[in-house]
Amino acid sequence: MEKEISQAVIRRMPRYYRYLGELLDDGVERISSNGLSARMRVTASQIRQDLNNFGGFGQQGYGYNVKYLYDEIGKILGINQQHNIIVIGAGNLGQALANYMKFEKRGFVIIGLFDVNPALEGISVREIKVRMMEELEDFVKKERVDIAALTMPKEKAKETANMLVELGIGAIWNFAHLDLELPEHVVVENVHLSDSLMQLSYNIANQRKLKKQKDKK
Ligand code: NAI
Q: What is the pTM of this model?
């Protein structure tokens, strides 16, 4: 049986992927865990431990082959394959997601935008047409949809998520301000930029406190 990898490790993987991508762009072919550690400000032992979850990849005295590790982490993260996304709620955030082309570079392709506002019907964001919610069921039957992004008001998000699950969509990228509880077979990633801002705010306060203490000495 495959070992269950902790979410904490999974959450660090995209960062490894990003740094390794930068190393590749810089023409670096191999790197030691110490070298990667210095660049990423993560301890070398943390890096070794994290990568050991997937069988290591490193060689004693050689370090990591950057391209190999990059590709392997890509496979672990499943970004060696295309994920088709639909966006529910074509307002500010929905359109911003649709406008962001770099997701496609990673295989995340937005194939449809949906909304309830007739004023948006037929407009296109980067050639992705906004369709009305009534068209959703037919669309999902015709196209392969891997992920639905929810960028709509939270009041309707639960109901909409349940409907999407009933239509067979197995993954929700949820931006509405509620934590969705869905059947276990559905994968949910809740994204709250405000959580990140609050963390930033905490760290600002902490920084100021430390500075004050230092100034007193
Ligand atoms: P917005 O008002 O510009 O867009 C919301 C869109 O959803 C509108 O076009 C509206 O017609 C549509 N909509 C309303 N009911 C719908 C339904 N039942 N089905 C499909 N579409 C429906 O709002 P904005 O700024 O784009 O924000 C969207 C959502 O994302 C809000 O719930 C907001 O609170 C949330 N948000 C979350 C963030 C996060 O970090 N998680 C960051 C920013 C916004």
A: 0.85
